[in-house]
Amino acid sequence: MSKRVLVPSVLGAVVLGAVATGGYATASTVTEPTVENGSADYVAPSRQGAGKLSYTADVSDDSGVREVRVIAWPASSELDPTEAETRYVDEATCRGTSDGTSRCTYTLEVTRRDASDLAEGAWYVSVLATAEDGDTTFVPRAATFDVTR
Question: Which of 94, 112, 115, 136 is the residue whose CA sits 20 to 30 A from 46?
Answer without folding.
Answer: 94
